[in-house]
Amino acid sequence: MRKVLITGAARGIGYQLCKTALSDGAHVYGSVRMQDDADRLQREFGDDFTPLLFDIRDRENAAEKLIQIGELDTLINNAGIIGPDDSDTATATLETFSDVFEINTFAPLQMAQLVLPKLKASDHPAILSISSQMSWMGYAKSDHISYRASKVALNKIMQGLATDLAQHEIPVCVVDPGWVRTDMGGEDADNDPTDVAKGIWKIARDLTMSKSGKFIRWTGEERDY
Ligand SMILES: NC(=O)c1ccc[n+]([C@@H]2O[C@H](COP(=O)([O-])OP(=O)(O)OC[C@H]3O[C@@H](n4cnc5c(N)ncnc54)[C@H](OP(=O)(O)O)[C@@H]3O)[C@@H](O)[C@H]2O)c1
Predict the structure, then answer these.
(1) Which atom of ligand 1 lies at the shortest distance from residue 9's CA?
(2) Which numbered atom of ligand 1 lies nearest the CA of 79?
(3) pLDDT tens for residues 47-65?
(4) What gap in Å lies between CA 198 and CA 87, rounded to an integer?
(5) What is the tally of structural domains in the chain?
(6) Contacting residues for 67 by C-beta, under 8 A, at least 6 apart
(7) Can you tell me the mean pLDDT for 131-159?
(8) What secondary structure letter does DSSP report for 6?
């Protein structure tokens, strides 16, 4: 049975990813921040789901919760925040950048560091991080600059991690989920989170070293950074 850790399981893409992975027979460890969410998901998903209560910024607490789980095959770094609407370059502050970078950029690397010993012991390990089309350097747009920059940096870090983990045959990739109807994406977004989760899960399940270091659309094609 494939064992998967999905961060940000309580809602949005993360919630749908949990549902999809469970329906494909995986055991899912889902990170949540509220006990109420842990209880709700446990009731809904049953014994193949284990909620883990931690904030992805909190290395010590995350490490403590992860020690309690045994084997792990797949890490899906999904949790993220959009940050302030008005974070353009004229108004952005170090404080708003710090929040977004801590959650969107550094925490996914920290999660990978924490689970690495488990992934090294897996027969089919994989690390996926959910990035964004807003990271694409072909866009000159400046709205949500802290978010855009955090995902550019995430891409670079995950590309570097892919290089470093190649010797252990652990594939690492970043995924562009498109624009998705969640609390973050809003109701006008193009894509249904259920469809997107199915696409992302397929990429995670089938990820091999040939795709390591790539930026992949939720539909499966490789795309430009
Ligand atoms: N929606 C889109 O159109 C879109 C487009 C491109 C990329 N993405 C990316 O896709 C991922 C999921 O987005 P979404 O649309 O599903 O967002 P969402 O509906 O806003 O959900 C975000 C999830 O991240 C969790 N989270 C936020 N900060 C956290 C922290 N410090 N520790 C632990 N969990 C934390 C939230 O937990 P709580 O429930 O506890 O707040 C929630 O479960 C994000 O990385 C986002 O950047 C989304």
Answers:
(1) 43
(2) 24
(3) 999 999 999 999 999 999 9
(4) 32
(5) 1
(6) none
(7) 95
(8) E
Ligand 1 contacts CB of residue 102 (under 6 A): no
Q: What is the pLDDT of residue 49?
A: 98
55 lines ligand 1 (CB under 6 A): yes
Q: Do residues 130 and 175 make contact, with C-beta atoms less than 8 angstroms apart?
A: yes
The total number of residues shown for the chain amounts to 225
At residue 87 the predicted structure's pLDDT band, cuts being 50, 70 and 90, is: low
Q: Is there a catalytic annotation at residue 29? A: no
Cα–Cα separations (whole angstroms), residue 53 to 36, 66, 101: 10, 10, 21
Ligand 1 center to 12 CA (angstroms): 7
In sequence order, the β-bridge partners of residue 128 are: 76, 173
50 is in which domain, residue-wise? 3-223
Residue type, 54: F
Q: What is the pTM of this model?
A: 0.98
Does an H or E element contain 173, and which?
strand 172-176
Pocket lining: 189 vs ligand 1, CB cutoff 6 Å: yes
How far does residue 161's CA lie from ligand 1's centre (Å)? 22
Q: What is the pLDDT of residue 86?
A: 64
CATH number of the domain residue 164 falls in:
3.40.50.720
